Amino acid sequence: MKKEGENANKPDNTAFTQQRLPAWQPILSAGIVIPGFVVIGLVFIAIGVALFLTSKNIQVLEMDYTGTDTGSPCSKCTYNVSCKCLLTFQLDKLFEGPVFFYYGLSNYYQNYRKYGVSRDDYQLFGYISNLKNPGNDCSPFQYDPTGQPIAPCGAIANSFFNDSFRLFHNVDGVDMEVPLDGKGISWWSDYNVKFRNPELTNGTLKDTFKGTVKPLNWVKPAYELDSNVNNNAFLNQDFLVWMRTAALPNFRKLYRRITEGNYSSGLPAGNYSLEISYNYPVAIFQGQKKVVFSNVSWMGGKNEFLGIAYLVIGSLCIVMSVVMLIVYAKFQVPDEDL
């Protein structure tokens, strides 16, 4: 019985369980390490050059419209609500398409913990019970002063960015409006998985939201964000983009794409004007607002840091290989000691 007890936990007598499988252990000699560092360095440098040059070729146009700068066309709107201003700019050459149109905010901490959790995911997923009884995480934007539930509730929804833009191209003295495409600007997972509109009551969203009120800072209720039912309420593309909070205090979010009509290949050289409906106040927290036009490449948007990082690592590998070669040549360190 004792012998059986001793062998009860003994592994099977196989090459795998008894660790008898063949193995290969490389010998790191100078003839392997130094050329290896050189090859790695050259590969990293080649990738870095490709990334850096590609990023350099990406066109980006940024314009601040906060209105705090002297002479800014939006200075009249800094402390006013529902104000309009006009930004003009000129393109000297074709701004290659597809062109992506972003709005940017600075000194805006969406990563603040209490702000980031101030939402009711069950409400945003379309549960009727949570539509009328928002979760406590939404407090103090859970109910209005009269006790009616807010839909959508929470600080994120309440601070929904509501500036709007219209772009015009001056052609022979006539301002032609540039079509802005707002379809599919949110993440696929947000639109198809994480967010849902509640079931329609009497065939309308208005009846579904009956008994709720709009967020305190909104001009109109969620069911009037768009006339298209597929782009309304919790499935509104602009709302979905805003609800995906940013990790850093200076960020930009996609507003529209320019891909249609005469502008499918980009924005031609010429004079442009951007009409801004200035509704979103940022002066109260020393924030800034900007608009950004950009195109992309195979590596995404403009990002020179990635190319520089590859160049630095590749250069360090080359320098280290040279240092090791000098040490090896001067002191003749035997291979087995490396």
What does this structure look like?
With 338 residues, the chain is of the alpha+beta class. Helices cover 28% and strands 18% of the residues. The strands form 3 sheets. The protein has a 4-stranded antiparallel sheet. Strand 5 and strand 6 form a beta hairpin. Helix 2 runs antiparallel to helix 10. The longest helix has 28 residues. It is extended, with a radius of gyration of 29 Å. This is Cell cycle control protein. It holds the Pfam family CDC50. One of its GO terms (cellular component) is membrane.
Describe the SSE topology.
Layout: H1 2-7, H2 30-56, E1 60-64, E2 83-91, E3 95-96, E4 99-106, H3 113-116, H4 121-124, H5 128-132, H6 155-158, E5 164-171, E6 174-177, H7 188-194, H8 205-208, H9 237-243, E7 251-258, E8 266-267, E9 270-278, E10 288-294, H10 304-331
Antiparallel strand pairs: 1-10, 2-9, 3-8, 4-7, 4-10, 5-6, 5-9
Helix pairs in contact: 2-10
- Using DSSP, what is the number of strands? 10
Low-confidence stretches: none
Derived structural class? alpha+beta
The level of helicity is 25-40%
Distance between the termini: 53 Å
% residues in beta strands: 15-25%
Radius of gyration: 29 Å
Task: Please name the defining characteristics of this protein.
4-stranded antiparallel sheet, single chain, 338 residues, alpha+beta
Quick recap of the structure?
With 338 residues, the chain is an alpha+beta fold.
